[in-house]
């Protein structure tokens, strides 16, 4: 299995964090440490410009956190990358997404203390280059080992902005 669960204190700089912020209604955040963006679960329609970031109860968030890791592990076994680029019909809005069993996870700006905002890349080439960096973490390959950790208490998180 290319994903190795580790304690956050011992995770390497390229680790993937699965974060569940404090609060009775919360997000689940996928945080690749080596990249400047996070992934937030969404029900989105890029073509229509609709992004909805669902909030979860603490219990639902814990379930979803485990579910997304299982989905990433299944992708690595099936050799089908969960990373994709998407664009609107006019090809003016390019984004990076991670597909899991339950959600599409949208790349969002990471800016502690500020709202999550979806990242829109200027052109297809820029989005594809960013997707390639993302794929190295979310689809590491059969001979790679990707550290992954869960954090439910000790981190800064942005608010939600659709």
Total strand count, please? 13
**Count the helices. How many?**
2
> How many strands, what sense, and barrel or not for the largest sheet?
5 strands, antiparallel
Main β-sheet, spatial strand arrangement:
6-5-10-9-8
Helix content: 10-25%
Order of helices and strands: EEEEEEEHEEEEHEE
Shape: globular
Describe the protein.
There is one protein chain. The chain is of the alpha/beta class. It has one domain (3-160). 22% of the residues lie in helices and 33% in strands. It has helices spanning 58-78, 124-138, and strands at residues 3-5, 16-19, 25-26, 29-32, 37-45, 50-52, 56-57, 83-87, 94-99, 104-109, 115-116, 146-151, 159-160. A five-stranded antiparallel sheet has the order 6-5-10-9-8, with helices on one face. A four-stranded mixed sheet has the order 1-12-2-4, covered by helices on one side. A two-stranded antiparallel ribbon has the order 3-7. The relative contact order is 0.27.
SSE layout and pairing:
Blueprint: E1 3-5, E2 16-19, E3 25-26, E4 29-32, E5 37-45, E6 50-52, E7 56-57, H1 58-78, E8 83-87, E9 94-99, E10 104-109, E11 115-116, H2 124-138, E12 146-151, E13 159-160
Parallel strand pairs: 1-12, 2-12, 11-13
Antiparallel strand pairs: 2-4, 3-7, 5-6, 5-10, 8-9, 9-10
